[in-house]
Amino acid sequence: MPMTPESAVAGPYDALLLYSFGGPNAPEDVVPFLRNVTAGKGIPDARLEEVGEHYYGFGGKSPINEQNLALKAALEAEIAKRGLDLPVVWGNRNWAPYTTDAIDELERLGARRAVALVTSAYSSYSGCRQYREDLALTLDERGQLGPDGSTGVQFDKVRSYFNHPGFVQANVEAVLEAFEELERQGGNPAVAKLVFVTHSIPDTMEAASGVGHATYSDQHMDVATLVADAVAEARGHAVTWELAYCSRSGPPSQPWLEPDVNDLLTERAGQGLTDVVLSPIGFVSDHMEVVYDLDTEALATAAELGMTAVRAATVGTRPAFVSGLVDLILERAALARGEQVTEAVVGTLPAFPSVTPPDCCLRRDGEPSGIPALCSKDMHR
Ligand SMILES: CC1=C(CCC(=O)O)c2cc3nc(cc4[nH]c(cc5[nH]c(cc1n2)c(C)c5CCC(=O)O)c(CCC(=O)O)c4C)C(CCC(=O)O)=C3C
Ligand SMILES: [Fe+2]
């Protein structure tokens, strides 16, 4: 294998864990999958039935697993291109291959220390700590969680990468393509509003996401500003934009981040808005939240309102995104080796911590989870 520049060293890591949410592959998977996702979360049955219907409407199969396999293949190709020796293992929190299956695979490969890359770009309980808790719980079930960290495979995590230049660049490219598509559909890009969309979370989770760093919604505001500015510059006209949310669940009494994307479209249509580009910056691939909540629901809302609306692509396997992820892995490796590293970031926020403070991204503000979480200062060796 030819050696590429000195930066191309993955040590101390001997494997990469591509760590995702998981989704059902067949109708009979849907209910057990939803049980895995919602265990102890207090989500009303009516919401679960509704979400189950979203999956059945797509043949009981989420696109997420194939998308993760595509991302795995793209990462493997980029890793090979850089001359790195870093096998990629895929695992999910909520469906097969489960976290424990991935750890089995890592052990088969003889891996001692793996770097984990989660398929969430932003920090909150759902996108950060819940993965770290799942790793700790899984190692514990396997009898591999020592008092100061794991006694089995050791895991380090790549920092939340919403403000990495590769992620932002890939979103800019996708939004520019969507503006062109809007024009092809007879819309008027010069007056189109750019509506960024992400997953809503409870207000309590939003507050807890801001311990030691910017909150989940502020992280999105930074990315949205960067993408909108770059798009306006490339297109040579002003672009107005807003941030909206989708996929709210939980009881109606519980406040979640708003506005909902459908409500926003309805309100703006009433004020004369005719053209919309939806940019799903909160998601890295076109999984169920995107193909149902945006492509099915929000685009139907826009059509009913007589708008011309186009949904921009997610970053998926775009080269700028994939190569940025490999840069992040190499950056994490250099940090683990104790080297001085300039962390690549864009926007107004700093690079997020790779090893988080103990109370970072709790599920609810001020309420310790009681669950250990890996890649945290109190757990790290
Ligand atoms: C911030 C965030 C992301 C974005 C970051 C990221 O991309 O990871 C995300 C992604 C995803 N969420 C997904 C699916 C679900 N999320 C649920 C429930 C919840 N999500 C939450 C937050 C997030 N979720 C929250 C606060 C809940 C309430 C329960 C709780 O407090 O945890 C439920 C239960 C039913 C419902 O309530 O909707 C389902 C089925 C899938 C898989 C899609 C597929 O199958 O293609 C993906 C990628
Ligand atoms: Fe979710």
UniProtKB/TrEMBL annotation:
Sorted UniProt keywords: Cytoplasm, Heme biosynthesis, Iron, Lyase, Metal-binding, Porphyrin biosynthesis
Compartments, as annotated in UniProt: Cytoplasm
Classification via InterPro entries: Ferrochelatase, Ferrochelatase_C, Ferrochelatase_N
Pathways involved: Porphyrin-containing compound metabolism; protoheme biosynthesis
Keyword flag Transcription: no
Enzyme class: lyase
One Pfam family it belongs to: Ferrochelatase
UniProt-listed Enzyme Commission number(s): 4.99.1.9
Function: Involved in coproporphyrin-dependent heme b biosynthesis. Catalyzes the insertion of ferrous iron into coproporphyrin III to form Fe-coproporphyrin III.
Descriptive protein name: Coproporphyrin III ferrochelatase
